[in-house]
Structures are given as C-alpha cells and as structure tokens.
Specification:
By secondary structure, the protein is α/β, with parallel strands linked by helices. The chain has helices spanning about 30-40, 45-55, 55-65, 90-95, 105-115, and strands spanning about 1-10, 40-45, 70-75, 85-90, 100-105, 120-125, 145-150, 160-165.
C-alpha cells in the first residue's frame, strides 16, 4: 500500500510560496516519526531530503536513527545521499522497495505518484493555522478522494484520511 502523507495548514498548504514551513511547530515532528514507523518505509523527493538535512539536530538525529527504510527519488544519477538512504530514479522503482510505504514529499513527487495511479491512501495532518497562500501538496484535478473514518490520533492536528478512487 502506498500512503501519501503531508502536514497542511487549515487552508490546505504544505509550505509558503517561498518554501518556508515556519507555520509547522517542531513539536509535531514526533507525529511524523510515529507515522513513519507505522509504515516502515519513507519515500521522499530530493528537495524534501535536502530540507530535512537542513533541520536542527534535535529533529534530524531521531529521524536519522529511526529504523525505517528511507528512499529518495531523483533523476540525478550523480546524487549520493548519506549512508542509510536508498536512491530510486522513478516513482515506480521507489514503491517497489517495500509493500507498505509512506510518501512525504512536495507536489512534484506527489503528483507523479497520483498520475501513475500508485497512491492508495492519503493522510493529512491539518494544523489550525491558515497561511493565506502557499504551495498545495498535490493537484486535485482528476483525483477522487473518498473520506474514510480515521481512528488515528495525533497531537495538535486534525487527522484527515482518504482513499484514492
């Protein structure tokens, strides 16, 4: 199963227009780590990898030490991440790494996976704060989201779960 995961503002954005995620409190990082552990494998794009590598050590170290498989999708054959990361050169290659994967990335990777029909489920952790304008996690054109009852709980957010139909 491929599950897409993003933290969003109340008005549906994953970042501000300039890419800043300053509206996402760092104390929610544990929510993300918990979701990663539930799935066992995390897929991200290269830009998300770069962003995570720039995080404060208090956030980065627990992520790096997490026992999950970490996969980075990039077309760049010269890209060499830190030890412990797997490189995939296409979304299809990335989702073959494990039977149950979590994807947490930006709209480029999210849209590729959705267009190829590879996403089964979407989990959004919605914050109470609106930011007015920003970057959406994916294009809704041609994507049918079927709300499902969520039993998941996460501190400080509203959990929204959907099946992709």
């Amino acid at each position: 199963m491929v599950t897409l995961f993003n933290v969003i503002s109340a008005d549906g954005f994953i970042t501000r227009k300039d890419g800043r995620e300053d509206f996402i409190p760092s104390d929610l990082w544990q929510n993300f780590l918990d979701v990663c552990r539930e799935h066992g494998t995390l897929i991200m794009g290269r830009k998300t990898y770069d962003a995570i590598q720039g995080y404060d050590k208090a956030l980065l170290v627990p992520f790096e030490k997490s026992p999950i498989k970490k996969v980075v999708i990039t077309k760049n054959r010269e890209f060499h991440p830190k030890v412990g990361y797997i490189v995939a050169h296409s979304p299809r290659d990335a989702v073959k790494v494990a039977p149950n994967v979590l994807v947490s990335s930006g709209p480029t990777i999210n849209n590729l996976l959705l267009r190829e029909g590879l996403v089964d489920k979407i989990i959004l952790h919605e914050l109470p704060e609106s930011i007015g304008d920003g970057i959406k996690p994916f294009d809704r054109d041609g994507v049918t989201l079927l709300p499902i009852e969520s039993s998941s709980k996460a501190k400080g957010v509203k959990v929204r779960e959907y099946r992709v139909g």
